[in-house]
Amino acid sequence: MIVEHARDTAWVDSGDRVVVLRLDRLADHPLVLEGSAAVVWRLLAGGQSTEALVEAVAEAYVVSPADVEDDVHRFLESAVQLGAVSRGEGA
Q1: Intervals of the chain under pLDDT 70
Q2: Confidence at residue 89, expressed as pLDDT on a 0 to 100 scale
Q3: 84: closest CA among 17, 16, 14, 28?
């Protein structure tokens, strides 16, 4: 499955954190991402398969994919529920 930034989001990357705003929910608080969540967000640019994300995060932190797989999936599920990430079809 391919996941990507939702179309109605705007975001700013300050280096140590990423701040995401849902443009269709301007009354909501922005989503502030730090650490591995910010790494995953950056990797989502252009869309990625969940498997590719797990591999890339593992590589970034020099750990095995099994060490980060659950965390990546939890982040993606939360981000989808918040409307910041959308799911598509594909690898």
Answers
A1: 89-91
A2: 64
A3: 28
The CATH architecture one would assign to domain 2-88 is: Orthogonal Bundle (1.10)
User: Any idea what the Cα angle at residue 82 is, between residues 2 and 71, rounded to 5°?
Assistant: 60
* 13 DSSP β-pair partners: 18
Helix (H) or strand (E) holding 50: helix 50-61
Q: What predicted TM-score, i.e. pTM, was given to this entire model? A: 0.88
pLDDT at 90: 52
50, 3 contact by CB (below 8 A): yes
Contacts 24+ apart (CB under 8 A), 14-22: 18/42, 20/84, 22/82, 22/83, 22/84
For 13, phi and psi rounded to 5 degrees? -110, 115
29: DSSP letter: P
Q: Are 90 and 4 in contact (CB under 8 A)?
A: no
